[in-house]
Amino acid sequence: MLSILKQENGNLSIVMLMAVIGMVSGLSMSSLVLRDFRNLTYEFENVQARHLLRSDAYRGQNFLVSNPLTIGEVFVLPERRFSLNSGDFARSFKLRSYVEKTRENTLIGSDTGIVGTDNMDVFRLNTMVSTAVGSSFNTFDSNSTRVVIGSSLTLNQSSFAEFMYFTDQDTSPAGKNVYFYGSDVIEGKVHSNSDIQIKNVGGWPTFLNLVTTTGHIVSHSGEYDEEEVFQGGLIEEYDGYIFPKEATTLRHNARHNLMAGSTGPENTIYLVRVNKGQSTFWRGDLSVPIRKSATVWDPYPSIPLDAADSLFTNSFTIRDTIWTSGTLGQLSGNGIWVDANLWLEGTFSGNQTWGCSQNIYLVGDILLDMTPLGESPVYNPKDMVGIVSEKSILIKYGYKDPDSLARVHPNCGADDDYTAPAGGGIFIYAAMCALGDGGDTSATDPNFKHGVFTFEYQHPHGSTPAINGEDDNGDTYFFDWIDLHRYRYPPTSSDPWPIANPSLDYPWYNPLWPEARPYLERGTINVYGAIAQRRRGFVHRSGNDSEYPSNDGYWDIEMDMCGGPVTPPVPYNDPVINGLVLLPRNWPGASGSGVGYKYKNYNFDYRFLNTQPVFYPEAQLTGGKKPLAHGSWSIVIPDRPKFNRYF
Asked: Which among 116, 609, 104, 109 is positioned nearest to 384, based on CA atoms?
């Protein structure tokens, strides 16, 4: 090394080597600086582009709210340009977007999992962001323009499934106030097109999500802490929603249509049992009215019958039900329309919506294939159910099974049948919508034809069941319709139906009439979904209702006048049939002193915030606007040929 340094040529070589090293190092540093600057530039452009994508998402959403498209229609939004100049570098951005309505099979994500949707009508906003160096709009004419980023956003038409509670009028069918109490803890959104009544009974109610009302909150217990009661926020004097009278979208798009019999929709029943993506059904056709007579004897029954005195003969009409069976296939991803009364139960797979022109009776649990009983459905990736009636949705008390011929009470249970908070009774994993419009919807007008979610057979009384046996001579006998052979029917003002000693059920008011010991308390309603209704239906009632006369002695079932009080129950010992006691009772293990479902285990299905059951009734504000909900949002490399078709 020293010898190299002592030589003139050696010194020059080292100098040249050092120069080369310095130059390479300088180039390397310049490259690193350039790379970092370029990365910073790209990061800046991408961050700004994502903000611009978000702003264009709301621009597209605002357009669609007031200008809904038809299937296959495309609308190109006006081009937007933005310039940003930081002093060190300047960039211009250009946004080109188009919206389209399409029908597609897609997966929509939520905060709690992935929601599967099958062949849903959706809006799609497609956006492409380009950038160019410089802060002048004319820079896009240069060759430096490039595509930074693009996105594809699914927008779903908002529906009434987004509300845990929706009521057009927050009153009972009798036109009386209905209150939220301390035991009410409401998870999802709440809206009413009228005032909302609250009381401090066992504490104040708690609303965990946004509450909106076109009217005001009316407290019947003085002042309250708004932040404590309305923890998700409260907006009074909010825009109203148009609550439709018909399930138009479902009617027009249903894949399966079950038609009424010759005697009309109100006289036809479809009892449907769903098994995942398939179902079996029984169709019940009510016959034309049949004239019947029943001689009234004193006493009755009597053996032999001619030992009794014949008093008079009742004459009335009845209708037989003729049942035939059938099957339905491929329910997943489809709507099913029933132009009749629908009795429904089962385990559902995929996205299904069931609707009918008459009442829907839930004759058993409504379950989801991939959700264990009593657990939340928010992690279920594919199963979703809508239930839509153009009248009311009722939890059925009982019926005679046309298959087994057994008399069953499918929706009764003990308070502690299942692990808390769930209880025995009925489980409903569905969004339910009762659209029935009975006419005047003023808060003080009783109208029992408005659409409600409620329960069947709200004023139970005992009735005398059929008996059969054998007399001392070995002859067999059978006595049926015993109450019709004892009392005047139809009753008259001078000869009314008995309301005391005994307090008898009106013939056929109980769907299992005659029944000596019908059930009062029936357990718990477990809902994992959403409820929308014209008015708020009863789910539990006093047995001696003072707000509307169930205790006045009259029978007008359509107007909720159903004889005398049912609680406290008064036993009646039959004077002729030894050992027969007529006495309403609670279901074994169910407690309480009223009628129906004392416990409400209501849980909102948060998947409905991102997507809804197929063809479910859409939400529309009174001004004609149709709100939308964001579905899936993906960052993509834009399809340049597809964009070029519209720009």
From this structure: 116
